[in-house]
Amino acid sequence: MAALLGLRLAISVASVLDISVHLIVFWSDNLNVLWWVRGRGRIFKPFIGNRIGEVQTYTNPDQWRYVPTKENLADLVSRGQSVTDLRNSHLWWHGPTYLDRSEREWPENRVERSLSAESEVRKSALGALSETIVTYSMFAENIDPSFRLKPDRFSSWTRLKRVDAWVCRFIDNCRLPSSKRNSGELLPEEISDVEVKLIQKAQKDIFPDEYGALSISKELPKHSKLLALKPRIDTDGLMRLDGRLQNSEYLSYNIRYPIILPRKNWITKLIVRYYHEHGNHSIGTNQTLSALSTHFWLIAGREEIRAWESECAGCRRRKAKAATQIMAPLPKIRLQMPIRAFAKIGVDYAGPFIAIQGKGRRR
Prior knowledge:
single chain, about 375 residues, mainly alpha, elongated
């Protein structure tokens, strides 16, 4: 119940601050709750199942992390503390010390199965649960639920977004009653949400240190390639370039703050291919880069575009050079030996010659 109340409070605060709930990390010292969150809501008894279903509707399991009981500041109030102790408590005023460090130094995320946790599982599902939830718990740290499809198995940016959007809708519908399920064609908002998740994952893969530093409002590493771009993270969790066009209100938000796309990433290649094919293979490198600049800031953009142009089968056919004609061998009659000079060639001397004599020309 405490986890659900914390989630509802976080949703209310996030709506006021205009930030995404997926950027929030939830902490709990209850190992049973962390184990329940990683299970399927329908296998639990109604009280737990309904609450787990609501938690999974708005958050991903990897957003829930374990906090040791000694560092859980919520216990200071729930277990009773005097005003003097709270006033002198560093934990109460500043929180756990590891929050000031990088995410890699946070406590290990423990997910343990216990008898007390299993007591909330339906008896009919307890047998089949022994393999599924335990297996998921073992590999939960290596699974990103927001990235269910492998982009490198797709050759079209549009198709990747639509397939992923259909998968997300199916999963969401499984969590909702039949009367509230979505049907019909995909909505623009669904495709837009998937696009944000795909680009966000690409940024995290290529720039993990930079993304982690910006997420906790810290300075970028000194060796970062993004220092000159002055990146920042927007409300959707995307890294954007903070350029000099902030006051150009007549320009769109994407032009003033373009999304940073990493180089040598499959998602970047799919986006470049989309804009290249949108120009019917006829626009050059600069025109493609100009079209991309309306939404994105591509690292080493020209090199990335030229790399795709060299792979594009249509462009290779159009730019292919015509084969050169191989000259035939000289006829045998011209190579007979001995042949004197001018034996087979004549010179026409019948035409007039123009000669210069003095100041005039004569024939």
